[in-house]
Design goal:
The chain starts with a helix and ends with a helix. With about 325 residues, it is mainly alpha-helical.
C-alpha cells in the first residue's frame, strides 16, 4: 500500500510540476523561446535514452523512470506548441459568423502540425519501448494524447469554462474556436469512457497476485488518467484551473493585479510638479451693513413669530 501511494504521489507531483514549469517558461519574453526549445530538446534526448534502458527492466524504479521520460517527451510537444514553434498553417482567427465545416477546417488548420508532432512523439516512444516488458511510457503517452484530444473536442463543441488562461498572447487567435455552452453531447460520453478505463486500469493494483512493478506502473498511469478526468470536470465547473499553477507560472493573484509591474532596475516615474501657488478665486467683498445705509437689511424676526415646540406639537 505504501508503494502504491508513493507512486500515485509521484505522478501527482510530476503532473503539477511539469505543467507549472511549462507555463512559467512560456510567459518569459519571446526571445527566450529558442533557449527553451533547445533545453527541451536536450532533455528529450536524455529521456529517450532513459526509455531505452527502462523498457527491458521490470522494477518500481524502472516504472518511475519510464513514466517521467514519457512526460518529458510529451512536454516537448507542449513547449513547441505554446511557444508558437509548431502550431499550424493558419495563424489568424476565423472571421465572425464562420460556422459548420468551414469553422472546423479552420480549427484543424490552426493546430494540425502540433497534432502531427504528438503523433510523431508517440511513434518514437512506441519504437524505443517496442518489445520490452515495461510499457509504462507507452501507456502514459497514450493517456495524455487521448485525453488532451478529448479536451480539445469538448472545448470546440462548447463548455462553460474554456481554461483560456493557459494560452499565451501570441496564440490568442485560437480562442475564436472556443464555444461557450452549458454542455455538449460529447462531454458525458468522454468522461464516462475515461472513468470506465480508469476502473479497469486501477482494479488489479490492489490484487495480491499483482507484482510490485505492475502495481507501480498501473498506479502511475491510473493517477494520470484520474487527473485528466479532473481536468475535464474543470471545463464545466466554475473554477479557474490555472489557479493551481499561479505561483510557478508567474501569474499574479487577482488582488495583486494593480501593483507596480515595472521591471527591476527602472526608476519610479517622477510625478509632475505642482504649481507654486494657486490663485484664490476672486469674489466681491460683502457689504458692510453698519457703514452703508443703502445696503438691504434683513428683518429681525419677532419673538411671537418664532414657532415654539408646543405650537409645532399642536399642529
Amino acid at each position: 500500500m505504501t508503494m502504491i501511494l508513493a507512486a500515485a504521489g509521484f505522478a501527482l507531483f510530476a503532473w503539477w510540476a511539469s505543467t507549472g514549469l511549462i507555463l512559467m517558461l512560456d510567459r518569459l519574453p519571446r526571445w527566450t523561446f529558442a533557449w527553451t526549445m533547445a533545453g527541451a530538446t536536450t532533455l528529450t534526448t536524455l529521456a529517450l535514452w532513459g526509455l531505452a534502458w527502462s523498457a527491458s527492466v521490470t522494477s518500481v524504479a524502472s516504472a518511475l523512470c519510464a513514466f517521467a521520460c514519457a512526460l518529458v517527451v510529451w512536454g516537448w510537444t507542449e513547449v513547441s506548441f505554446l511557444t508558437g514553434w509548431i502550431t499550424g498553417p493558419r495563424t489568424t482567427a476565423s472571421p465572425p459568423g464562420t460556422r459548420g465545416l468551414t469553422r472546423l477546417r479552420h480549427a484543424i488548420a490552426a493546430i494540425i502540425w502540433h497534432e502531427l508532432a504528438i503523433l510523431a512523439g508517440f511513434l518514437v516512444v512506441l519504437a524505443v519501448s517496442w518489445g520490452g516488458e515495461n510499457q509504462t511510457a507507452t501507456a502514459t503517452y497514450a493517456v495524455l494524447w487521448v485525453m488532451r484530444l478529448s479536451a480539445k473536442i469538448n472545448i470546440f463543441l462548447g463548455v462553460p469554462n474554456h481554461a483560456d488562461g493557459f494560452l499565451p498572447e501570441h496564440l490568442a487567435y485560437l480562442k475564436s474556436w472556443f464555444t461557450k455552452r452549458a454542455m455538449n453531447p460529447f462531454f458525458p460520453v468522454s468522461v464516462s469512457a475515461a472513468l470506465v478505463a480508469l476502473a479497469l486500469l486501477a482494479a488489479p493494483v490492489f490484487a495480491p497476485e499483482t507484482s510490485a512493478f505492475e502495481a507501480a506502473s498501473r498506479a502511475l498511469v491510473a493517477t494520470l488518467l484520474a487527473l485528466a478526468v479532473l481536468e475535464h470536470w474543470f471545463l464545466v465547473l466554475p473554477f479557474e484551473s490555472i489557479a493551481l499553477w499561479r505561483l510557478p507560472s508567474g501569474e499574479r493573484p487577482p488582488g495583486e493585479a494593480g501593483r507596480d509591474t515595472r521591471p527591476p532596475g527602472l526608476p519610479a516615474p517622477v510625478p509632475a510638479p505642482l504649481p507654486a501657488s494657486v490663485p484664490a478665486p476672486s469674489r466681491e467683498p460683502l457689504p458692510d451693513l453698519a457703514r452703508d445705509p443703502r445696503a438691504p437689511r434683513r428683518p429681525v424676526p419677532r419673538i411671537e413669530d418664532t414657532p415654539s415646540a408646543f405650537s409645532l406639537w399642536r399642529r
